[in-house]
Amino acid sequence: MHDDVLDPGRAIAAGAAFGQLACALPGGGLLISSSRLVEFNVRATILLAPGLFRLDLTPQEETLGLLTRPLADHPVHWRAEQSTWDGYRDAGGVAPLELHGLFELPDGPLACWLHILSFTDRDAAAVHFVAKAELRVPSR
Amino acid sequence: MRRVSFRLPVDDKEELLDALMPLLPAGVRERPLDGGEVELATTAAAPPPRAMLEAAVGRPLGGWREEEVPDDWRDRRAMFGGGGFLVAGRVLVRSPWDPPAEPGVLDLVLERGGGGFGSGSHATTRMCLELLLELQPSGGAADLGCGLGTLAIAAARLGWAPVIAVDRMEGAVEAARANGARNAATVDWRVTDLESAEVPLAGLLLVNAPPPVHARVASALRADAAGAPRTDLPAAGPSAAATPALGAPRHVIASGVVPAELEAVASDYAGAGWDVVATRAEDGWSAALLEPRGA
Fold this sequence. Notes:
The complex is a heterodimer of chains A (140) and B (295). Chain A is mainly β and 140 residues long. Chain A has helices spanning 2-5, 8-14, 82-87, and strands spanning 21-24, 30-39, 44-49, 53-59, 64-70, 76-80, 97-105, 108-121, 126-136. Helix content of chain A is 12%, strand content 52%. In chain A, the strands form 2 sheets. A 6-stranded antiparallel β-sheet of chain A has the order 1-2-9-8-7-6. Chain B is of the alpha/beta class. Chain B is built from 8 helices and 14 strands. In chain B, strands 10-9-8-11-12-14-13 form a 7-stranded mixed β-sheet, sandwiched between helices. The longest helix of chain B is centred in the last third of the chain and has 15 residues, at 211-225. Residues 234-243 of chain B have low confidence and may be disordered. Chains A and B meet through strand 2 and strand 3 of A and helix 3 of B.
C-alpha cells in the first residue's frame, strides 16, 4: 500500500494534465508539487496524490475555499495551523497555508504536510498558487 | 479563449469531479441549476475535448456547449457573471463587472480597494445582510468596521437613516465612500479606530468585526444603559453638527466571529443587557441578531 501511494511515477501520471511534478524524498516518502493561476470563484485541482487525496482550491476575493477530497476509504485526519485561517486575507503577509494530514492505511500510518503559498492579483481577478505535499511514514 | 460548459446531477457531482478535475487545469466555475443539476464551465485557450472528458466519466455530458469568449475576464464576467452574491433573493452584491440584478432585487455595486472587506464573497457579510433584511428599517444605523461599506450602503438603501460608517483603515473608508456614491447611498463615512476611540451608538449597530471590537461595543452599550453621556459620532468633524441623532440602540447585528467565539461575544453583550434573538452559521462563521433584554 505504501509503495503504491508513494510511487512518484503514479503521481506524475495522475497529475500530468495540470503539470504536477513528483519525486521520491530522501529517506523515503513522496513530494508532489504544482503551481497554478486560478480565477476568483473557480475551483481548481492543485495537487493530486493518487489513492490518498485531491486538493481543490476555490479562491474568492476575501476567502479561500479549500477541499481535501479523500480518494479512498481509509480514515484521514486533517488539521490546520492557526495562522492558516487568517493568512489568506492578509495581503501584506506571505505566510504559507499549512495543513497536516494523517492517513490510516492498512500497512501503517502515512503523514502529509501540505504547504500552499498564494499571491492575489486583483487586476487579473485571480490568485497564483504554489503548493506542495510531503508524504512520509511518520517517525515513531 | 474558449469556454466549455456542461451539466451534472448535483447528487453525482463530486464523484464525477474525481475523474474530471485532474483533466481541467483551468478549473471549473459552478452554477446551480433547477432540477437538481449544476452547470460546470471551464475557460481555457484549449479546453480538453468532449470525448476525453466523457471517456473519463464513462457517460455523456449533458448540455454540452462550446463557444469562443473574450480574453479579458471583465468582458467574460459581463457575459456570464460569476462574481456576484445574491442574498435571500433580495440583495445582489456584485462587482462593477458583473451583470446587474434582476428587477426587484436591490443591486449593490461594490468595488474593492484600500484593503477593505465586504465584497460579499465572505459568509459574514452575507449573514449580516440576511439579518438586516429581517428588520423593519426605522431610524439610524452605524456600521462599526465598515470595510468597503457594504452593510452601511445596504442599510441606507433599505431605508435606515441617518447612517454612519467607521473603519480604522483610511483606504477602506475612501473605497467605501466611493462605493456609497456609486450606489447613491447617504452615509457619513469616518476614519475611526474603535479599539481606542469612543464607539458611536445608533438604533441599529452593524458589527462585522473581530471579538475585541464587540467587547468595545458591548462596553459602550453598558455605559449607555447606565446613563453615560452619549457619543453618537466618533469625533467632532466637519459634518458632525449636521448629523442628527442616531437613535437609542435597539438592534445589534454581530458577526466576524467563528462559532467558538460567539459564546464569549454573546456573553459580553449579555453583560450589557442584550440577548441573542437570532443566529446564522455558514462556512465556519457565525452571526447573531441581538436586542435589549425584554425589548
